[in-house]
Write a structure and sequence with these properties.
Length: 469
């Protein structure tokens, strides 16, 4: 099966041949909105799971969420008032010792910066963690309900002219020829452009109410309809790196410099020089700045005194969870394996994991589905980690873990870790067991290159500099 690397290379060929970054539908540069979703959908179709890797809420859950969202109307960001900074936070909060649920990317900044702030977050499985660290937190729930209702009522629909239908048919045909999958490109594009029509007006209204001096967000792809009005209002947009960025990531990688994404943040703050230098971004090089990761700085100190155990920590991802979990169950059946195995689910896998991965249920693997258990504690007490392309693999290296990458998918960035001998790729369970018994040696991991220290002060100083211009 093709991995993300191969898919992305073929997509580059298609977008270059059809000049997709220069084309518009309904006067919108539509390819900017659908590039990443198309790559992910192709991967899902090749895997034979369609778009079922993450199941959306049922109709009953949707109706209940609409009722709740109207009950939470007072948490709509239109009531936030004027603020210096607007944060688009992650709902994947972590419970810390102070009893609050932290967004580990944005809360450390809001806690220390001497400016008025507001944060907005989506829900996970229609829920928000409480109590959150910041008291200035608002919800996207009402906006999500509006989009769902408008979609069902077929409001804000986009009509296509003859030429626009032709280009979408050409894209569909080339995807079919390149990948052998039947992707309804027209339906996908129209859905995203319809969402944009609703959301762009909503965000324009919100931004004019809050009037922030800067917007700080995570995961810029999927937020083009926020970035677009922000740019029209001349509000600088800063993205904080939150996950892996590599040469095959359609949300960040633009190797053909003439293809520029206009709805990309003005600034990107990366974890370290490795991430700044390894990808061709669509913005000026001086606007891609290595700053570090404040939470990692703090947590390494918190858990520095924990003693290592004979424990293997497995870092799962929803995109490879089925293959990885089967690999780990096979590993757990090895009779003379002298390690406990802990399997850390990705938050998007938690709901219904027993149905998705039934082979894990009766295995000896300790499945961690509780987000209250600190990942960094698991890093600190483990000797070995197994993962494929989660950011957590790099974080585990920073904790000194011996790292093995199962060859269940051919992806770009682990190759460099393997080539530099800070991680070992294994093709099957038998090979992994052999390495474990031989006590494989690994080269030193330069964590400063991947996670620059002193992150919090540097990040705050840069934000203050940007908004003073």
């Amino acid at each position: 099966m093709l991995g993300f690397d191969d898919i992305f290379q073929k997509i580059l060929e298609i977008e270059d041949k059809l000049k997709l970054f220069d084309r518009t539908i309904a006067n919108v540069r539509f390819w900017e909105y659908v590039r990443q979703p198309i790559v992910v959908t192709i991967y899902e179709l090749l895997k034979g799971q369609g778009s079922s890797l993450i199941k959306g809420p049922s109709l009953r859950e949707r109706i209940w969420s609409i009722i709740i969202s109207f009950g939470r109307l007072w948490k709509n960001p239109i009531f936030a008032g004027k603020r210096d900074l607007l944060f688009i936070s992650s709902p994947r909060r972590i419970l810390r010792k102070d009893g609050f649920w932290w967004d580990i990317y944005t809360d450390p900044i809001m806690e220390k910066i001497n400016l008025s702030c507001a944060a907005i977050e989506h829900s996970i499985n229609l829920q928000h963690q409480s109590p959150p660290k910041t008291s200035n937190l608002w919800y996207f729930d009402f906006e999500t309900s509006l989009i769902y209702i408008a979609e069902k009522l077929r409001l804000f629909r986009v009509s296509l002219n003859h030429d626009e239908r032709i280009i979408l048919k050409k894209i569909r045909k080339m995807i079919d020829l390149s990948f052998g999958v039947n992707l309804d490109v027209e339906k996908l594009v129209l859905r995203h452009l319809g969402y944009r029509r609703i959301r762009i007006h909503y965000f324009q209204f919100v931004l004019k109410r809050i009037r922030p001096r800067a917007i700080i967000l995570l995961t810029s792809y999927g937020k083009e309809d926020l970035i677009e009005p922000a740019k029209s209002l001349r509000i600088p947009v800063i993205e904080l790196q939150h996950g892996v960025i590599n040469r095959s990531h359609a949300g960040y990688s633009f190797p053909n410099k003439k293809h520029r994404k206009m709805t990309f943040p003005d600034w990107l703050f990366t974890f370290g020089d490795y991430w700044t230098e390894s990808v061709d971004y669509t913005i000026e090089n001086q606007h891609v700045v290595s700053v570090g990761f404040p939470y990692l700085d703090e947590e390494r100190k918190v858990f520095s005194n924990l003693r290592k155990r004979k424990q293997i920590l497995v870092i799962s991802q929803w995109t490879i969870g089925e293959d990885l979990s089967k690999f780990i169950v096979d590993l757990s059946k090895v009779k003379d394996l002298d390690y406990d195995i802990v399997y850390k689910l990705h938050p998007l896998e938690v709901k219904g994991w027993q149905e998705k991965y039934p082979w894990l249920v009766d295995s000896s693997v300790d499945v961690i589905s509780d987000s209250r258990i600190p990942l960094y504690k698991l890093f600190a007490e483990s000797e070995i980690q197994i993962g494929v392309y989660s950011t957590a693999v790099f974080e585990g290296l920073a904790f000194g873990l011996k790292t093995y990458i199962p060859g269940i998918q051919d992806v770009d960035y682990p190759k460099q870790l393997v080539e530099e001998e800070v991680a070992v790729k294994v093709s099957n369970v038998e090979e992994l067991v052999h390495h474990l018994k031989e006590n494989q040696n690994f080269k030193h991991f330069d964590s400063e290159r991947f996670f620059r220290s002193g992150a919090k002060k540097r990040m705050i100083d840069l934000i203050l500099e940007i908004i003073s211009k």
